[in-house]
Amino acid sequence: MDMNTKQIKHLKSLGHKLNPIVTVGQHGMKESINNELEIALDYHQLVKLKVSVGDRDARDALVQQIVETHKVLLVQRVGNIALLYRKNKNKPSVFEVSV
């Protein structure tokens, strides 16, 4: 999923006012969390995820695993909050801006 700088900036501005919808706790990813994240991405397209696992390396590895598993774009990551985007082909995208 290729996006230009203007589109990513727009997604960041939309994500700024969002609250985390899905939280990954100290026990890591579970199937129920994967299902919730999948549902949230299909419905909202732009989702904030809170990752509260061990150290920084574990958190980075888990975020990267989520990006690859769910085929999402990591728009931004600040601390333990990740902003994820995946376009739903069945819904009009309100997040993309014309170039």
Indicate the topology.
Elements: H1 5-16, E1 22-24, H2 31-44, E2 46-51, H3 56-70, E3 73-78, E4 81-85
Parallel strand pairs: 1-2
Antiparallel strand pairs: 2-4, 3-4
Protein architecture, described:
One of its GO terms (molecular function) is RNA binding. Residues 1-97 form the CRM domain. This is Ribosome assembly RNA-binding protein YhbY. InterPro entries: RNA-binding_CRM, RNA-binding_domain, YhbY-like_sf. Keywords: RNA-binding. By secondary structure, the chain is α+β, with helices and mostly antiparallel strands. It has a single domain (5-85), classed as Translation Initiation Factor IF3, CATH 3.30.110.60. It has three helices and four strands; from the N terminus they run αβαβαββ. Strands 1-2-4-3 form a four-stranded mixed beta sheet, with helices on both faces. The longest helix is centred in the middle third of the chain and has 15 residues, at 56-70.
Radius of gyration using CA atoms only: 13 Å
Helical proportion? 40-55%
Class by SSE composition: alpha+beta
Mean pLDDT: 87
**Order of adjacent strands in the largest pleated sheet:** 1-2-4-3
State the name of the first-level CATH class. Alpha Beta
